[in-house]
Amino acid sequence: MMFLFALYTFMCFAVFRGNRNQKKKDRIFLWQRVLMYVIHFSAFLALYAVQDDWRVIIFYLFQVILISITLTCYQLFYSGASMLLANNMCMLLIIGFTILTRLSIERAIKQYIIALAAVVLTMLIPLLIRKITFWKRMTWVYALVGIAGLLAVAVLGKTSYGAKISISIAGLFTIQPSEFIKILFVFFVACMLCQNPNFKTVCIATAVAAVHVLILVMSRDLGGALIYFITYLIMLYVATRKLFYFASGMLCGSIAAMVAYRMFTHVQVRVVAWKDPLSVIDNEGYQICQSLFAIGTGGWFGMGLGQGMPNKIPVVEQDFIFSAIAEEMGAIFALCLIMVCASCFLIFLNVAMQMKDQFYKLLALGFGIVYGFQIFLTVGGAIKLIPSTGVTLPLVSYGGSSLLATMIIFAVIQGLCVLRQDEGEDNGRKKQGQAYQKVRSQ
């Protein structure tokens, strides 16, 4: 599995070589899918051998159906879609299903049901992005809905690990609105900055963005606040190209971080655990110590599926799923996982650079920053690079809101890929028309 996944990861970056024509790229995508299915089969064969549970086989077959339908739909209905992005999304889903089945098959099945619903809901999004043209005219709708949603969580949300991040609906299930509102937030910022980002516009956009961040701080969702803040700051810098705005934002963010450290006890606990977890291993540092022990125990090649002890890590299915993957599948597999996520991030940036409309350009950039920075926070917290922020690993960690929001983001990017192809075809027809007129004039 480790060798096959390393080969899959290599292909993710081989596609970006400039001398690859479409036929060669399609061949690479086909081989990626073959590797994906072999890795998937090998993983669940190992899980069945360890767990001896017939549900593992049934669950595996349902996953194969979901993955096959997803890839087939993108191939049939969206010729301009990025098949590398579709392959990577399915590969990350497979890794998530695998490790969640190892940890708790009941939670893995719940995750599958949400993924199935997400595929059905998001399959039309590329078509909507392509056909609907008034996305950039709904600026204040995005802002008002986003602020109202965050305020609802701040008032009605239930506290989990020191932060109000979710709302319970009828006691049956919970949702995390900030996961979806960050999508609206990126749309709002792109709308504000796509036209003429003068000083007045920047002030208004900054004020509204600050309201979003402050409400998240009030809810003590500091991980979410950090994602919103960094996303806005980078989008602002790219739109205006003024280093002063970026430097001022970083200075204000640093001051806000120090204030948050003084105000919130759970932030102090996480910083103490990050600075020297072994000295407080019985209390604050227990989670991060268990994470580091798991990664170290797995070594380069892993203990093998079902052979480690990832359940010793608190909240392992969500915040520290990377540690469970590293323990049982190995550090090489975990590094390849990071590289696959990095290739998705590069696709986002590539789409942003190729879009001609400034609104769509900023949209792709914003979603790329949201996705990439969330991975940095999750992996950084698991390996003690930064204090833990309570952020999930997109498409891999357990959590319905995170999974659905990430798949919406991927679908929006696929829609932009389709638009990019349309722009290329329009330019081609325009050049042909100009050439024809030139010939006729001669």
Task: Provide tags for this entry.
single chain; 442 residues; mainly alpha; three-stranded antiparallel β-sheet
Description:
43% of the residues are buried. Helix 2 (22-51) runs parallel beside helix 4 (83-103), helix 4 (83-103) runs antiparallel to helix 5 and helix 11 (243-263) crosses helix 12. By secondary structure, this protein is mostly helical. The mean pLDDT is 89. It has 17 helices and three strands. Helices cover 75% and strands 3% of the residues. The chain has a three-stranded antiparallel β-sheet, covered by helices on one side. It is globular.
Question: What's the SSE blueprint?
Answer:
Layout: H1 2-14, H2 22-51, H3 54-77, H4 83-103, H5 105-122, H6 125-131, H7 139-156, E1 158-160, E2 163-169, E3 173-175, H8 177-193, H9 199-218, H10 222-240, H11 243-263, H12 265-275, H13 286-298, H14 321-329, H15 331-354, H16 358-382, H17 400-441
Antiparallel strand pairs: 1-2, 2-3
